[in-house]
Amino acid sequence: MSNNLIGGFFNRLSASTKYIFGCMVVYGENNNNGITGFFMVRGQDYAPAFDVAPDWESYSYTKLDSSNEQDQKFVNNMLAWDEPVVVDGESKEIADGKVCK
């Protein structure tokens, strides 16, 4: 069901596909999972690209720094799904995900 939430969110973002590219993944197991991911957004302000989706405020957004090693590793993992996601100091396996392009 969490992966369906991602798919629906991406469908509602279809008006902004010229301005964004990203990937969201579901981590954890059934009845104990979460969603995380990253987006590259044209420009410095992300809100105009996401406010076309009514549920965009359900997610929290943090600007990543491309010179930060941890942020680079996070983005690479979101694209490759090779390593578990660390959430609140706990490592959780990636179960599924989708790419928004």
From TrEMBL:
The keyword Protein biosynthesis applies. InterPro entries: EF-GSTs, EF1B_G_C, EF1B_G_C_sf. It comes from the Eukaryota. GO terms for cellular component: cytoplasm; nucleus. Residues 1-101 form the EF-1-gamma C-terminal domain. One of its GO terms (molecular function) is translation elongation factor activity. Transmembrane segments: none annotated. Keywords: Elongation factor, Protein biosynthesis. This is EF-1-gamma C-terminal domain-containing protein. The lineage of its organism: Eukaryota, Fungi, Dikarya, Ascomycota, Saccharomycotina.
